[in-house]
Amino acid sequence: MSFFSQVRGRPVYDASGERVGTLQDLVISSDVPYPPVQWVVIARGRDSRVVPWCDVESVTPERATLRRTYEAASYPHTADGEFVWLGRDVLDRQIVDITGVKLVRVNDVALTSVNEDLRVAGVDNSTRGLFRRVGMERFAGAFGRNRAPLIDWDQVDISPALTEVRLKVPYDRLQRMHPADIATVVSQMSPGEAADVLEALDEETAAKAMAELPDEHQAAVLTAMEPEEAADVLEEMEPDEAADVLGDVTEERAEELMSLMEPAAASEVRTLLAYAEDTAGGLMNTNIVALPLTATVADAVGQLRRDEDVEDEVSSVYIVDDEGRPVGSMSLYALLVSPPRKTVEQVMQRDLHSVRIDASDEEVARTLVHYGLLSVPVVDEGGALKGVVTISDVIDLFAPRAWRNRPVRMRA
Amino acid sequence: MSLFLAVMGPGIITAVVDDDATGVAGYSLAGAKLGYELIWALVLSTVALMVVQEMGARMGAITGKGLADLIRERFGVRLTLFAMVTLLIANATTTVAEFAGVAGASEIFGISRFITVPLAAVAVFAVVGFGSYRKVELVLLSFSLVFVSYIITAFVAQPDWAAVGRGAVVPAFHFNLTYITILIGLVGTTITPWMQFYLQSSVVDKGIGEREYRWERWDVWIGSILQSVIALSILVTTAATLYTDHAPADTVPQVAEALRPLAGDFAAELFAIGLLNASLMAMAVLPLGTAYAICEAFGWERSVNRGPREAPVFFGLFAGILALGAVAVLVPGVPLLVLLFLPNVVGGILLPVILVLMLLLVNDRRLMGRWVNSRKQNAVAWATAWALIALTAVYVVVALLQLFGVIEA
Fold it and tell me: Computed over its alpha carbons, how large is the radius of gyration of chain A?
């Protein structure tokens, strides 16, 4: 095992034993597990050329040796986005540690010889790696842990480091993380970097991750995103969450984004934006299932099945009278066990607690806790059903500050 | 216009914080010791400030990354270490100066610095470290309206406007240590290393990108001009009073007294409040910003939310710089005005290091694409760096000549 910093800058000799230059960089292709080095970049004076790995005899911390003459083995390199240069693109940059759920700075890259190949084994983000880079590794023991474990190459996503090289980077591994974990990682990035990540993810994942970001960060990230991409992500978000985010950006920006959204989704968000953020109106979700008294249990289940916009956190359906006022509710459990042919009026729970649309978030939270509800309907001045607040919408009021995602960045 | 209001902030805040305790000391001394002679340098510094700050804001908007981040990614560990040691020295001495500002202000009020300085240190540690920085920023910014009083005072002082005009266009230069020290200090307090890191990060953290950039430029330019108007007012006021009367200006209360005949009995108190506010504002920015930049560059845990156990280097730096500042000004007999002025010279000498790195970054096409510096911008920024390097060299030579008695002090 050796480190990239130990082989970089070493002299390169060709088959005839002549010194032809110094090792400038190692080139890998990023989409293979533990990628082998495919090209070696050799600097000669101000010029640099690449040699394919098959023409390289060995690369050690002392020297690199070629199998043929430099002239016969080397090619001019083209600026091309398919390959990753370890020194240029990975070293010193920030990448995602998937298991550690954080951004880490690459202090060094570990290489290991497997058969004929030189493969990338992992990333060194230890302070020891820093000492090695300034040529003082032997003093590293005096400062903290002596040997920090390497981060396995299989457990990192280097995509954030590659944004300069390529327009679109895959974020393969990041994409598979839980949205809440993606949010944790993304909140350690600057808004611009975070915007790049969210734009590259599929919209559904991006929407979930965006919803999990801390409020202060959301607005900055949304500002930094391309308007079309931002609008797509907003469409995927729950309307109340989308309204939350839009409430924090400037009015022009919010208008611009809403004009790019699907009209239906935009108008829903627009309605919610009219309510203050810390009231029932600002918290509620408008995607609800409301049924007339005459509907059957089967109708209710059918409507749930058809309506793809209904939030998966919804735990009840509501029964409304002719004026749209809620008169009863049924939990999903009740729907499941009730005979399908009965009308909802026969089986509904009549003891209903609701909150006014202008009720404060605290009042909403207290109602939920006091009556032990998972969700509470929200009604307007006339008593008509407007939306529903679920317990997860107000959980921030209860959770200790430390549990929540707090912004990790601040001004330097 | 409303787009401008949306992005406004980073440039103006940085500029206002730039008129910190070291700024008040630097401009006061320039006026008190040399009268209107150095106004030309202030004018040139303002142009340089506008160009340099615009460069930083542009880098932030185009790359979406802070300066510490870019230095590490482009130049590797060794140069980063060099840049960060530079930043640490400049910022630590500046923090000491801010505490000197607190001590000076409390002297004017007649309160012992042994009470106010520890109080300020603990307050900043608690509020900035564990409270909401943004709220603190707002309070301090609104206090900074006190600075407007400087502008009014400058007019009340009835300066010789013809001499002001002459000083602005006719460069005077003398080969003596006082003159060169004050000149380096003047440039060094106007354009500082910390500002480059702070402004760029502020732009990045606001999510300002290519689209908003043309508005952000105005934020930076307006801020720079505002900063210089305040600086000029301070300089002109002390020039019209202390310099004209040949009054001594060797302690903070002496400088404050200069204002008494002008704005009545409360002038000195007003000066003290301005100084205190300027000091606190910079104290809220410097130790935390330094800790953040260094940890960002080296990839160490950096967050006030993580606690000292998880982020030892971050907390060590933050608390260490604050403690150093507080302890340094409590050393018996330490001359406050020297502490207040020292970082200007240190900053002026170290600034070229940061400037050269910035210039290499901003002219990197791979990084900046079509947003690299124009020829004019490069000319001004390189000229600034070279002028400071030349001044530093002259400073060293003159200091040596003086030391060996070749020329008179």
Answer: 29
For CATH 2.30.30.240, the residue range(s) in chain A are 1-86+106-148
Domain topology for B2-403: Amino acid/polyamine transporter I (1.20.1740)
Count H helices and E strands in chain B, helices first: 21, 0
Query: How does pLDDT run across B164-174, given as a tens digit for each residue?
Result: 888 888 888 88
pLDDT band, very low/low/confident/very high, at B5 (cuts 50, 70, 90): low
Interface test with B, best of A4, A92, A411 (most B CBs within 10 A): A411
Taking 50 as the threshold, does the pLDDT of residue A412 lie above it?
no
pLDDT band at B259 (very low <50, low <70, confident <90, very high): low
End-to-end CA distance of chain B: 54
| Chain B positions with Cβ closer than 8 Å to A | 2-3, 6, 63-69, 72-73, 76-78, 81, 133, 197-198, 201-202, 204-209, 212, 285, 288-289, 292-293, 296, 298-300, 302-305, 366-367
The pLDDT of residue A156 is: 86
What stretch(es) of chain A map to CATH 3.10.580.10? Answer: 290-396
d(CA A163, CA A197): 9
* Cβ pair A410:B204 closer than 8 A: no
d(CA B409, CA B405): 8
**What does the pLDDT look like over A317-370, one tens digit per residue?**
899 988 889 999 888 888 889 998 888 888 888 888 889 988 888 899 899 889
**For B163, what's the count of Cα atoms within 13 Å in the CB-facing half-sphere?**
16
ipTM comes to: 0.80
Pick the CATH number of A290-396 from 3.40.630.10, 3.10.580.10, 3.40.50.970, 2.40.50.140: 3.10.580.10
B324: nearest Cα among B88, B123, B141: B88
Most confident of the ranges A137-146, B100-109, B239-248: B100-109
What are the residue ranges of CATH 1.25.60.10 in chain A?
94-105+149-276
pTM of the prediction?
0.83
* Long-range contacts of the stretch A243-246 (C-beta < 8 A, 24+): A243/A269, A243/A272, A243/A273, A243/A282, A244/A215, A244/A218, A244/A277, A244/A282, A245/A210, A245/A218, A245/A219, A246/A222, A246/A273
Structure tokens at A4: 């990239």
By Cβ distance, the residue of B204, B285, B299 closest to A190 is: B204
CATH superfamily to which A1-86+106-148 belongs: PRC-barrel domain (2.30.30.240)
CB of A130 closer than 8 Å to CB of A105: no
Choose among A192, A222, A412: nearest Cβ to B289.
A412
Q: Would an 8 Å CB–CB cutoff place A222 in contact with chain B?
A: yes
Phi, psi of A40 (to 5 degrees): -115, 130
Beta bridge partners of A113: A118
Which residues from B are below 8 Å from A92, CB to CB? 72-73, 76-77
| Closest CB to A107 among B198, B299, B304 | B299
How many beta carbons lie within 10 A of that of residue A77, not counting itself? 15
Alpha-carbon distance values, B280 to B232, B287, B356 (Å): 22, 11, 30
- Chain B residues inside the 8 Å CB shell of A93: 73
CATH homologous superfamily for A94-105+149-276? Answer: MgtE N-terminal domain-like (1.25.60.10)
**B7 pLDDT tier (thresholds 50, 70, 90):** low
Tell me what pLDDT residue A233 has.
93
